[in-house]
Amino acid sequence: MRTRLVVLHVMVLTLLAALAVRLWQVQVMRGQEFVSAAAETRTRDVVVPAVRGQILDAAGRPLVRNRTALVVSVDRNEIAKDRSVLTRLAAVLGRPVKTLEKRIRSCGPGVTRPCWPGSPYQPIPIDEKVTTREALTILERQEEFPGVTAEVQAVRQYPGGRAAAQLLGYLQPVTQEELDRREGLKSGFSGVDLVGRDGLEATYDEALRGEPGLRKIQVDRLGKVIGIEQQVAPTTGDTLITSIDARIQAFTERAVHGAMKRARRADGAAGVVLDARTGRVVAMASAPGYDPAVWTGGISEREYQQLLSDRAGKPLVSRAIKGQFAPGSTFKVSSVAAMLRSGYPINGRYGCPGAFMVGDRPFHNFRGIPLGTLTMHTALVKSCDTIFYKASYEQWLKDGGLHPKKTPKEQFANTARAFGFGGPTGVDVPGESSGRIPDRDWKKELWAQTSGDNCKRSRTGYPDVKNRTKAAFLKRLAYENCLEGYLLRPGDAANFSIGQGDVLVTPLQLARAYVALVGDGKLRSPRVGWALVRPDGTQVKKIDVPVVGKLPLNSKERAYIKNALSQVASDGTAAGAFSGFPMDLVKIGGKTGTAEVYGKEDTSWFASFAPTSKPKYVVVVMVSQGGMGGQSAAPAVREIYEGIYGLKDEEPIKPVTRLPQIARDGTVRR
After folding, report:
1. 262, β-bridge pairs
2. Does pTM top 0.70 for this prediction?
C-alpha cells in the first residue's frame, strides 16, 4: 500500500513539474503578448446626437427651444452584467433602485410608465437633472460604473408653458423598428435620437433633427477614455419659423380656457385664428390643455393616462383639428351658396314662418318665433332657419325624394364639399379629422355597417339605458334605421341646411371656409410652418400655402354674404356679446351657431372676421356644451379681438408680413 502511494506521489510530482515547465515556456514565448494585452486600447464608435432645431413664432420669439442639462444615461446590456452598478448609481443620484429599474425596462403590453419606449440598444437617459458633483463622481470612478455616461445634452424647453401644446407636439425616443426601417445613420437617423410624435415636431421632424455626428474614441481595458481617434461633428437641425404669433396665441388660449370655465357643463373648447389674406395659422388653441414639459425626463403612468383620459377631457387631443362637431348656423354660408346655385334669387324675398312642414313633421325656427318676410341678407343676420328648411326640402324633392330615379344633384352636399367640408384641410399638423357631409352615399355605407345592430336593438331595446323615455326613443330610432336607414329622409335634408343632424366639421375647416368667403374666394390648405432656416440664418425653404379649390360663388355673391355677416355682431345674434365694443374702431363680422346635441348641452360657435372692410383675421371659437353661440363662443372671440387690437391694457398687435431675419450668431433681427 505504501509503495503504491509513493509511486502515485512521484507521478503527481512529475506531472506538476511538466506543467510548470510548460507554463514557463508559454510565459516566455507569449510574454510580450500578455504585456500588450494588459496595455491594449480599444476603439469604440460613439454617436453624437445633433442639437435639435428651434421652433419660432412669426416674430422670431421661441415657441420651443433647447436648454443644456447634465444627463446620465445607461447601457442596459452592460448593466445587466452587474446589477450592483445600478445600486451604486442609485446611491449617487439619490434615487430608489426600483425607480431606475423602471426607467430602463422596455415599454410594452402590461408595462406601466415610466418605461423605455426606444431601442433597447441605445443609451437610456435616467436622470436629466444631474448636478455637476454627481456627474463628476460617475466620470471619475468609471470602473465602478461600466455602461454609465454623464454628458451635457440639449433638452426641449417650452417658454409659453401650456400654450399651443397640442400644436407643437412632443418628442419620444426612436424605436428599434424605426432604426431598422430607416437604416440608421444612412438616413441621418440614429439610436440616440428623439423623434417628433405629434404636432409640428412630427411634421418637420427630419429637418429639425439634423444629422448626428460620430466620435471614435480609444478606451483602455477598464473602459476609461484615453483619446479621440476621429471625430465628425453633428449638424444642428434647421430652425422652423412659424406663422404663429405668440401674443395672439396667448390671448386665444386665455379666451378659450375662460369660455370653457364659464360654461357650466362645457367639456372642451377650441379657438383658431387665421390670416384672412394668406390662410396661414396665426393661433390655434384647444382646451383642456397640458404642459408639454411632462414628456421631459420620462412621463409617469398617472400622467400618461391623464393625457388620454375621457374624464380629464383627453387633453392630448387637439379639438381644433381633431374635434368634430355639428356647426349649427355657422354652416348657413354654405347653404346660401347652395340656394344661389339652385336658382334662388340673391335679391329675392323669403317667408320666415315659426315652423315649416317637412313632409308630415314641423321643423321650427329658434324658439318657434316667426320673423315675417326677409331678404337673404336679413335671413343671415337674424339666423332664420325655416327659409333654409324650405329650400333644402324643395331640392330634396327635385332630386327624387326617397327614391331618386337618376343620379341626384345633391346641391347642398356638393356645395358644402366645395367649401372644404367633409375632407381634411391638409394642414401641416398630423392627425386631422375629415368631418362629415351626410349625403345619400354616406347613408348607404352607414346602413351597411349598422343595420345588424339596429335590427337587433329594434327587438331587444335598450335595457341598459336607465331613462325610460330615452330608451324608448332609441328603440324607435333603431327600428326606423333597421327598415330604411339607407334612405336620405326629408328631415335629414332639412337638418343639413342649418348644420345639424349628421353634419360634422372641425374648427379649422370652418375657419378656412370663412377665409375663402371673406377673401378672394380661393380655398387654401392652411399652414403653420412658414420657413426653414439654418442656424446661421440661411433660408433652406419657404413653406407656401397651397390653393386647393375655389368657392362656388362669384365676387358679387361673396360680397353680398360678407356684408350680411358684417351686421351680426352689431345688430344680429351676436349683438349682446359685442355690446359696448368699439365698432367704430374695429368692426367685427361673423355668424353665431348653436348646434343641438342629443343628451347634451348645445355646442356654441362663433365664426368671425375683422375688420369687415378689409379682413385681416378670421377667428373661430367652439365651446362643446357651451350653450348658445352668443353665450359662450362670441364673448371668447370678442376677448381675442380686444387683445389683438389693444382695446384693453395691451398694445395693439401689428400683423407680421415678413419673415424675421436670423443672424449668423443665431440672434433674431425683428
Report:
1. none
2. yes
Q: Which class for 343: exposed (0-12), middle (13-18), buried (19 or more C-beta within 10 A)?
A: exposed
**CA–CA distances in Å: residue 661 to residues 248, 531, 535:** 21, 11, 11
Q: State whether the Cα torsion 584-588-591-592 is positive or negative.
A: negative
Cα atoms in the Cβ-side hemisphere of radius 13 Å centred on 16: 6
Q: Hey, what's the cell of 354? A: 315659426
Alpha helices in 332-375 (DSSP H): 332-341
| CA atoms of 350 and 353, how far apart (whole Å) | 10
Task: Please state, in angstroms and as integers, the Cα–Cα distance from residue 587 to each residue in 274, 463, 569, 590, following that order.
Answer: 17, 54, 8, 10
C-alpha cell at 460: 331587444
pLDDT tens across 537-566, in order? 899 999 999 999 999 999 999 999 999 999
Q: What amino acid is encoded at 186 in this protein?
A: K
Distance, in Å, from the CA atom of 192 to the CA atom of 153, rounded to the nearest integer, reads: 11
Peptide bond into 114 cis (omega under 30): yes
For the stretch 389-426, pLDDT in tens is 999 999 999 999 999 988 899 999 999 999 999 999 99
C-alpha cell at 422: 367633409
Provide the grid cell at 534.
Answer: 439654418
Q: Is 357 helix (H, G, I), strand (E, B) or coil?
A: strand
CA angle 397, 403, 409 (to 5 degrees): 55
Please state, in angstroms and rounded to a whole number, the distance separating the CA atoms of residues 71 and 69.
Answer: 6
